[in-house]
Structures are given as C-alpha cells and as structure tokens.
Amino acid sequence: MTEDIEEPVVPDGRRGTRPLPIVDAVAPPERLAMLRILIGTFALTYVLVRLPVFLQLGERRTGFDGVGLATLLDGPVSDGVVDVTVVVTVLAGIGFVLGWRFRTLGPVFAIGLLALGSYRGSWGQLLHFENLMVMYLLIVALSPAADTWALDARRRTQSNDASTEGSTRYGWPIALASLVLVVTYVIAGIAKLRYGGLDWVFGDTLRNHVAYAAARLDLLGGTPSPFAGLGVRLEWLWPFAAAATIVIELAAPLALLGGRIRTAWVIATWLMHLGILAFMLIGFPMPLFLVAFAPLYRIERLWTQRPSWARRSSSTQPAVAR
Amino acid sequence: MDRRARLLITAGVVVALLVPLALDRDGFPLSTYPMYSRARGDEVTFATAQAVDAGGVTSALTLRVIGDSDDPLIVAGELRDAIRNGRAAERCEEIARRAAAWSGLSPGSVGIEVVTERHDVVAQVEGDHSTLDRTVHATCEVRS
Predict the structure, then answer these.
(1) How far off is chain B from A196, nearest CA to CA, in Å?
(2) Do A146 and A33 form a contact (C-beta atoms < 8 A)?
C-alpha cells in the first residue's frame, strides 16, 4: 500500500471542467470492493468479538439516556428486540462482506451497527472508536461496492450487466470516506485546543491523563499498562508527545495529498495510537489495524499484486470474485 | 450520480461532521471527539466499588464484578452515572450479587461499598500513598 490515490480527472462527458478533489475522484470498482471487504470484515469481527456486550444490553433497564439513533426511543427496549437486532446485524454483515444482496443487506448492516452503537452508548459512556467505523459502513453501504468481487457481481456477469471501468462512481465514495477520516482527526485536534487550551500542550495534562488511565484501571480492579509508571516518570517526554499529537491531528488533511506525505501521516498517526495503547491501554482498533487508512490507498492491490506464494495457493481472483 | 449531487452530498457530509463542534454537543456517530481533550490536573476523583470486611478494611474487586464488563470506560462511566442519578444503592446490590459468586473475593468480606475517592494520580501510579478524600455513597451486604 504505497501508491497514491488516483488524481482527480475531468468527470465523464464534461471536457474542460476543472476537476474537484474528492468530488471527481476516480477509482476502479475493485478498490471500492476491497474497501467493502476490509471494512465489512473488520466491523463484523468487531460485532462478533463484542457479542456478549451487545446481547447483555437487553437486560439493562435503568440509566438509559439515548444517543444517536437511540434518541428516537422513549426508554430501553426489550431484550428480544436487542437479540433480533444483533442477529440481523451479524447476518447482514456476512452479506455485506460477501457482496450478497448488497443493496439491501449493505444498508441493513450499516444501520444495524449504527443502532447497536447508539444503544450501547446510551448507558453513560460513548466509545468514540465506533464512530468512524459506522460512518465508513454507511458510505460503503450506499455505494456500488458490490459491482465486482462480490456474489452479486457474479450473478450480474451471468446476465452481462457488469460494470468494470474505473469512474467517479467508485472513486467518489472512497474519497468521501478519506475526507471523513481526516475531518474526524482535525475535530479531535480542535477539541484538545478548545477544551484543554495551550495547557494541553505545555502543561502536565498528557502526563496526568496517562497517570489517570492507569489509576482508574487499578482502582477498578483492572491491570494498568506496565509502561504507565515509566511514562509518568519521564516528565520531559509529555510536552513533546502532546505537541506531536496536536500536529498529527490538525495535519490530517495532508494525507489527502497522497504520496510520501500521506504515508508519513499514516505512520505518525499509527505510532500515536500505538503510544496510547502502550501507555494508557486504550486501543483504537481501526487505526491500529490500519483499516481506518484503507481509503487513502490503492487497496485493490492487496489482492491483484499479492505475493507469489499467495498466488500459488489460490485462484486468480477472490473466492467471491466474478 | 451527477457531479452536482456528489458535490452537495460531500458538502453535506462535511457540514454534518462539523455540526457537533459548532453546537459543542457530543453524539454518535457524529462527535466532538472530546476524549482526553480536557486539561487535567494530578488530583482526580474516581468512582469505584470495593469489598469491605468486618473491620472496615477494603479490598479490590474486578471490572467484571463492578460493572459486568471488561471495558474500564464502560464500568467507570456507568458507575459514575449511577452515583450521579441516585442509583448507587441499586448498583451496590448488583455488585454484591456478582461478588458473592466471584471466587477471588477476599476472605472475610462482608459487604460492598460504592465510593468516590480523590487521588493524586501520579503518586498512585508511582505506588505512593495517594488517597486524598473518600466518600461512601452506598453500602450493602454480600450474601454468600
């Protein structure tokens, strides 16, 4: 994943019109399909790993304060409703990944996760790492992401109705996802300056956050990061780390330029999340597993340019390829 | 989809992302991303629950016993909300039920206390005495 996203081109049939970034981005259908597979697999795995947490929500009756989609509810729903939502979301997620009945199951999966995330966040604690995942899912679910490398595409090929050319049809949703990615990081950077002010950078705030995360875990009977004690003693480190965090977050739009500057930002951001995990034991799974950065790259090459050992042990196309 | 529609939707998505920032209102999936953004001193008040023996000596529980979850954000957030909303006693009974079934409960534990404690977090992490203040919001019996 080292190549630039493709340059915007003049949109179809509009010669002489100046291309706009994001809006006129083009990509082959395989890139959007790979984004569907990556995001879908990640989100489906996430739901399955946290299945007990989601299923347990049905037992809760007090402390409900609706957020997101759950603001439409007057109060907690029955455990049966939660169970059905979880099961339907998981089944739709399988369809999402395989690109089967995608026009229906894609949105069902995205809305299912939006509903589950909203309901889970309605009991006193929002988990912000779910936000980007849900926004990616909504974008991909409403795009033609199953035009290739999908069971739907196989059926369409048989009826000679497949679209294979690169266009804004496939490039724009990917570029929109990358725009969402960078805007969310910028908002996080603004939040630190807005709520924490310059003290967030030049004071002991970040060091105290690390100590706070460790102390909270300890007092709740968990196991704090083994690096927290060492980190807290390295007082000189934290103003640099805080400044780097702000710069990384506010500089996120540079990633849209592509090339080395994008990859430098991705590496810096990944290291930032690795540091958060190491010192605070707080994991942001999407960036840590690199899935968050997928819209910035020619990810179809993960399959089309896979290593020779993988070519020998597989057919020339994914199992769900047309 | 034509270019104008793509342009409008793109602009709409950016505006939607920025609305929580303008309103200063966190939500899902549109957020102000306020996590760890506030300035924080080294003295912090925590909500937690502890087992207590007949002599008043406390011992730690686990995330699972306190909040029926392995996620400290969820456990801490929900306990904090329970205390704030006057449901500390109710939550204490839930914790006591889980504690009674927990094999790691300290011998001699007779009750649960739902508390807020104020700590010097740097001292706490460095293993020094850190408790500055302690308030008990609810106590309840552990029935074995």
Answers:
(1) 4
(2) yes
